[in-house]
Amino acid sequence: MKLSIAALLLAIGSTNGFVANNKQSLSPSLLSSSSSSSSSSVRLGWTELFARKPFITGNWKLNPQTKTEAIDLARGIAASITDKSPCDVGLFVPFPFIETVQQIVGDKLVVGAEMITPEVKGAFTGGISPVMLKSMGIEWALAGHSERRTINKETDEYINAQCRMLIEQEMNVVLCIGETLEEFEKDLVGPVCEIQLKKGLAGIDADDMDKVTIAYEPVWAIGTGKVATPEIAQSVHQKIRAILQEMYGAEIAEETRVLYGGSVSPESVDGLLAKPDVDGALVGGASLNAKGFGRIINFQTVDTPVEV
Ligand code: PEP
Questions:
Q1: Core-most of 48, 66, 136, 267, by most CB within 10 Å?
Q2: Is the pLDDT assigned to residue 29 strictly greater than 70?
Q3: Which of these is catalytic: 114, 154, 194, 217?
Q4: Residue pLDDT, tens place only, 116-128
């Protein structure tokens, strides 16, 4: 599927005189099916144009407090997704609400678990296995969120076991990585991301990378209201893609979605998503407000001239 998109992009790029696999090389006017500005008779929607369709997902953490509130929130978020929404949408929700939320949102968005236990069965009190989740129709989970790394003391090895277990079950994982404020101030962003990426993905083959999404989440930006600038996000995402290239080659590095997470808001989303290596967002606090999250999902593309 991804290969055929890449081939299509190359073909379109050559007929129109530009390389089309970079978000910023395209004017949004060319994205519209009613556009008449292209001399080509081929009209493509967002999904077909970008090998990396943006993915925006909420992470509810330990929220909301009741099932009734979860139902209202899920309904509100699902209602904000339309045919024109420019991205795939997901919600990582607390275990007790998963099934209810899944029924409410239907196929409008993917519902996932905020963590899993990297075991299939046995004496692991409180554990939640990917097999259990899969039997309920859940195919996505987060791994390596900084709150789990710090509060629950999950190590890179444990996170790697979670990633491998999810992949073994043919499920999808969003692997979260990112540096603390101290590491940021000591200019250690690159090495920290490299260690977490390499340890988190150890033993995962290139063939399975279509089940992996990376979320760059600087710890200093999570829940603090201090969002990384689009320039910082772009520069780190570029580094992450270079590490992926070293690990898996250029094609997989180009195809893997790298999300940004850390205080994303309706105000900051457009600038972040305008960057060519920012393929979406992992949104905590702002995903608890249906109206605000609706605006984030329906982010505006920045009108950049077509390069000819
Ligand atoms: C998160 O939970 O992954 C997150 C990024 O939270 P927030 O958006 O609230 O910073």
A1: 48
A2: no
A3: 217
A4: 999 999 999 999 9
Strand partners, 96: none
Q: For the whole model, what pTM was predicted?
A: 0.84
CATH fold label, 52-297: TIM Barrel (3.20.20)
Whether 217 is in the pocket of ligand 1, judged by its Cβ within 6 Å, is yes
Where do the structural domains in the chain lie, given as residue ranges? 1-51, 52-297
pLDDT at residue 236 greater than cutoff 80 = yes
Distances (CA, A) of 261 to 161, 165, 279: 23, 24, 11
Per-residue pLDDT tens digits for 152-187 = 999 999 999 999 999 999 999 999 999 999 999 999
pLDDT at residue number 52: 87
Distance CA 47, CA 175 (A): 23
**CA 62 to ligand 1 centroid distance, Å:** 12
Does 265 contact ligand 1 (Cβ within 6 A)? Answer: no
Is any atom of ligand 1 closer than 6 Å to the C-beta of 203? no
- Asked if 237 is an active-site residue, the reply is no
Q: Write the CB contacts of 185 (distance below 8 Å, at least 6 apart in sequence).
A: none
| HEC secondary structure over 271-307 | HHHCCCCCCEEEECHHHHCHHHHHHHHCCCCCCCCCC
Distance CA 236, CA 261 (A): 12
pLDDT on residue 282: 98
Rounded Cα distance between 167 and 173, Å, is 8
Is 145 annotated in the active site?
Answer: yes
Sorted by sequence, the CB contacts under 8 Å of residue 67 that are 6+ apart come out as 96, 97, 100
Which is more confidently placed, 215 or 306?
215
283 lines ligand 1 (CB under 6 A): yes
Cα–Cα dist 171/212, whole Å: 9
